[in-house]
Structures are given as structure tokens and as C-alpha cells.
Specification:
Length: about 425
């Protein structure tokens, strides 16, 4: 039996495999066409590649851009001022806010409250829509002012950024951000008072970037459960991709066997104490602490929205315009032809790897998205909750709840596997 998948980005459906009228397996059928970005960038210079990959996703364009820039800088000997990196990190946090706001209020909140859309929910309480729009509008303004436009931003390059905002632009953002923070706190009771009716245990394997200080952001090491791995080793040897005949998306499992989750729930469960103290105080007032299950991802996303806005506010309050953010600072070297890095995109770890030829152009590219890593866990959890039960509308409702909780970006998960003869 098949059912369309709604309240997610992209096109897919839920397929239930039954035996004698009872659920045997739940599958998420992804029917979108391959993206081919790994092949499009071949033969291109790093400067061109960073702009190309920012077009992969309208939600995670900053993550792709920031990641590619850091990967090339790390391996080509390009150093930037600390304030430049801080600016780019703040732009990345702005993307996290925008993505989470869209998911929590436009997709997840209607699903967990049993309404058809945010509009229907807003008919019951008009203030919800007004406040959600205020926070979302602020996130778009942050992206536009800091990144050049509200999606698929362009204001990063190898060695720096193109054009930092003026003091006047930043001053305007400060006042808008204060209003958005007030609106978000007014929404806290709507979101954090909700407790999902389904009980889902925390998945055994959780993956996020390793961080020795702050809430995880970007880096070259990952932590799986309690084991720390170099990111290249993890994605080169432990996380193995497989294709499914019913799906155009890749499915990643540890050693090809066990599923794992990455994203806000994994980050929240491991690094809760790294969240801003105001965030933790608010959560604990509503009885929220780790560990969270996947269906409670709205709590982790709300926490990350609040945390990100507070950190962005601190940055803007101390903002200093600098011309140095425009310039590259060192000569590049092509002695090391392999470039790789990872960032915590809104939905989880995003990984890029590039191999350069002798002329410094990309010869090979590998991109692993959060959704491709979460798909196997989505199917395993939905199957665990429904296996052996009679096939009914409830089956599809549970499967849909699991999918929406993961916030899959289906188009981004569709990549091609090299064929070797």
C-alpha cells in the first residue's frame, strides 16, 4: 500500500509492505531525479565550485557554501582572520534559524497538533501565525543583509567574504532581532507545552560533529555515540551507502548494517549543556531535558532557534565593519590534493570531499547530505512502531509523523553512486 508524503520538502511517498494484512516493513519511496552536482563541479576551479554548491539546496545553501570554502581553505593553505570566520559562522546560524522556523511552525506544528496547515491552526489562534511570520521574516532579513540574499547566499569566497554589511544595516538588524526574540518567546508555550502521544525510544546510534567547547558547528571530527572519528575515516570506511530499488536516494548505514541519526536531536542530546543558559532555563521550565526521542525534535529545533538568535544578537551588538574581510590573506598551494570538511547543517552533518588534479581543478567530488544519512533510521523507526500491527490509516499516520520529525530535504538526498564494471 502507498500513501503520499506531505509536510516535507520534495516528492516522496510512504509504502507499507504487508503480510496477511499486517505490517512487515515501512519504506519511504523517493521519486525525484538525481541532482548530479558531484559531476557538474568536475573540471571546475575551487572558486567556481563554492558558488555552484550553494545552489544545491534553498534551505542549506549556506551550509554547502561555508563547507566548500572551509574545505578548500584548509587544504590549500588559505588563512583568514578570526573575525572573518566569525562572520561566516553567524551567517550559518542565520540559516539554521530560517530552516528551523519553517519546519517547526509551518510543517511540524500542524502535524503534531492534528491540523491540516498553519493557516488552520492560526484560525484558532491568530497570534501564532503573526509571531511565526515575525521570526521567519527576521531570519530572511539576516540572510539578505549578511549573505546577499535570503536563500542560496553568495557572500562567501575562498579567503573571506565579498561585502560585509555596513554599520547602519547592522543597527537596523539589531532592533528587528529584539522584536523577533520577543515573538519567539511568546511562542514558547505553544511549542514546548506539547507532548507527543507516541513514545519513541532514542535511537542507539547518534552522530554529530565533535566539539571541545561550543555547541557543534563545523570541523573535521565526528562523534558517534562516545567514539570520536576523523570525518574522512568515518565517511570513507564506517558510513556506507546503498541504493534501494524503490528510491532514488542513497541510504547510509554504519558498516552497511546499523542505522543512525544525525541532526538537532543528536546535537541536543550530546551538547545540551553547551546551549545558552537562557535557553536551558526556558526548556527546563517546561520540563525538557535530554535525552529526546526523534518525535520530540521540535523541542531541539526550538532550542536551537533561540540559542542561535542569542548568539547572533551578541555578534551584532559587538559588530565591527572591516575591509579585511574582503581580502585573501595567503598564497594557495596544491601540495595536498584532497579537500574535505563537515558542517552541522540544520538537518544534520553535511560532508564534502574534493580531489584536485595537478592544475588545481576538481577531479572528483563526494557530497553526503543529512537526509541521506537519516533515511535508513526513518524506515527502521517507522517499522519498529508498526510491525505486526494491522495495516490501517494509523500505520500511515505514524510513518508520516516519523518522516516529518526528521524534516527530510528529499531533493538534497538524491545523489548518484559511481558504477564500476
Amino acid at each position: 500500500m502507498k500513501h503520499p508524503l506531505t509536510l516535507v520538502e520534495g516528492e516522496g511517498s510512504i509504502t507499507v509492505i504487508e503480510r496477511s494484512g499486517r505490517v512487515e516493513r515501512v519504506l519511504y519511496e523517493i521519486s525525484e531525479a538525481p541532482r548530479y552536482f558531484e559531476y557538474i563541479v568536475r573540471g571546475k576551479s575551487p572558486e567556481v565550485v563554492v558558488d555552484l554548491v550553494s545552489r544545491i539546496c534553498g534551505f542549506c545553501g549556506v551550509s554547502h557554501l561555508f563547507l566548500a570554502v572551509k574545505a578548500f581553505e584548509k587544504r590549500l593553505g588559505v588563512e583568514v582572520d578570526e573575525e572573518v570566520d566569525e562572520f561566516r559562522e553567524v551567517l550559518h546560524l542565520a540559516e539554521r534559524v530560517k530552516s528551523h522556523v519553517l519546519h517547526v511552525f509551518y510543517m511540524n506544528l500542524p502535524e503534531i497538533t492534528g491540523t491540516r496547515s498553519l493557516v488552520e491552526l492560526a484560525e484558532r489562534n491568530p497570534g501564532i501565525l503573526r509571531r511565526a511570520v515575525a521570526v521567519y521574516t527576521l531570519s530572511r532579513r539576516l540572510m539578505s543583509t549578511l549573505g546577499g540574499r535570503s536563500h542560496n547566499v553568495v557572500n562567501m569566497r575562498i579567503g573571506g567574504v565579498y561585502c560585509p554589511p555596513s554599520r547602519e544595516e547592522v543597527e537596523k538588524l539589531r532592533s528587528e532581532l529584539r522584536e523577533a526574540l520577543s515573538a519567539l518567546l511568546d511562542l514558547a508555550d505553544t511549542v514546548l507545552s506539547f507532548k507527543h502521544s507516541l513514545e519513541v525510544s532514542v535511537i542507539k546510534h547518534q552522530l554529530c560533529l565533535y566539539s571541545s567547547g561550543d555547541y557543534p558547528h563545523h570541523g573535521e571530527r565526528v562523534v558517534l555515540d562516545d567514539a570520536v572519528h576523523d570525518v574522512e575515516f568515518f565517511y570513507g570506511h564506517l558510513a556506507r551507502a546503498a541504493t534501494r530499488e524503490y528510491s532514488t536516494a542513497l541510504h547510509y548505514r554504519i558498516n552497511g548494517v546499523e542505522s543512525y541519526i544525525t541532526g538537532p536531536v543528536a546535537r541536543f542530546n550530546r551538547y545540551y549543556t553547551r546551549l545558552h543558559r537562557n535557553v536551558r532555563s526556558l526548556l527546563e521550565a517546561y520540563g525538557w531535558r535530554p535525552p529526546l526521542g526523534v518525535l520530540e525534535s521540535f523541542t531541539a529545533r526550538f532550542a536551537e532557534i533561540y540559542d542561535s538568535l542569542l548568539r547572533i544578537q551578541e555578534y551584532l551588538e559587538n559588530y565591527k565593519y572591516t575591509e579585511r574581510a574582503r581580502a585573501e590573506t595567503t598564497q594557495r598551494s596544491t601540495r595536498d590534493h584532497t579537500c574535505f570538511y563537515a558542517v552541522e547543517a540544520p538537518r544534520g552533518i553535511l560532508y564534502h570531499k574534493y580531489v584536485l588534479d595537478e592544475s588545481g581543478r576538481v577531479r572528483e567530488c563526494r557530497i553526503i547530505t543529512p537526509t541521506a544519512q537519516n533515511l535508513a533510521a526513518m524506515e527502521d523507526i517507522a517499522t519498529q512502531l508498526t510491525r505486526g500491527e494491522p495495516v490501517s490509516e494509523s500505520t500511515f499516520k505514524i510513518a508520516k509523523s516519523i518522516a516529518v520529525a526528521f524534516d527530510p530535504c528529499i531533493s538534497c538526498s538524491v545523489h548518484a553512486v559511481p558504477i564500476r564494471v
